[in-house]
Each structure stands twice: as C-alpha cells, then as structure tokens.
Amino acid sequence: MIIRRLAADDIDQLIVIAEQFHGESKGWSKYPFDEDGTRMVLKQCVTDPPNPVCYVCTDNKGYILGAIGLVVTRPPYVDAMFANDLFFYVMPHKRGSKAASLLMDVAVEWCQMVGAKRLTMGNSVMITPRFGSFMYKHNMTRSGSLYSIDL
Hints:
By secondary structure, this protein is α+β, with helices and mostly antiparallel strands. The chain has a single domain (2-137), classed as Gcn5-related N-acetyltransferase (GNAT) (Aminopeptidase, 3-Layer(aba) Sandwich), CATH 3.40.630.
C-alpha cells in the first residue's frame, strides 16, 4: 500500500468513492450527493495545501483504497491551531487492512507539520464500537459527542 497526497488525476476516482461514502453515511445520505461541491473541495486539496489537504492510500496499481481529508483552524478562544477531518473513508473490502492505520499515521504527521495541537476525528461518520476501538488503538480519546437537528 502506498500513502501519498491526492493528485489532480485522482479526483474522478475519488468522486466515485466519495459517493459511496455518502451512501453509507446515515447522516449524510439524507441529503443529495453534491458532486460539484465534492470536486471543488478535492481540487482545493490539490491546489491549496496545506489547508485543506487530502491523502490517499492506493494499491500498487494506483487504485484508491481509502482517503482522509483534513483541515486546520484556529478557534477564537485559544491561541492554538486544531485539525479536523473532512472525511475518512476506507473501501469496504479493505477495512481491517493496514489502509486506515496508514492514513491515520499520515494524518498525525500532517497535524504535527502544520503545528496543530489536537486532531479531532469522527465528525462525518457514525460512531460504532469498531470505529471507537480503532481510534483508541491510535491513541485517540473520546472528547465529546455531536448532536444535530434536521431543519
């Protein structure tokens, strides 16, 4: 498996994967998939790094097995930068492989490189025991819960 930054040539392949991610998400699938918006964010990941940034995990033939998108922000109430995931997805047939761990490792490295003091993840996925176990293995701790209301 190869970890690398998203390239412009990857965007079409990642759009297909993003649509699959969208369909699996109980929260996001209530809303129509926005291909144009997804394409815009992915292009920003290629042209405007380090913020946002996207890393992909590929097989030796270049097929994307998973991806993580990250953004860094400065909250108004502390003098520090914090990172959040925009998305974190591994293809179903590669879950349980090293793909997710490799993506987590590069996410932490990126956060350290940009000076983020904390990485918060899980904003876009349904928190399951399996996901929680994975996060704990990567030294993440649960730091709250998200609540939402459909308007």
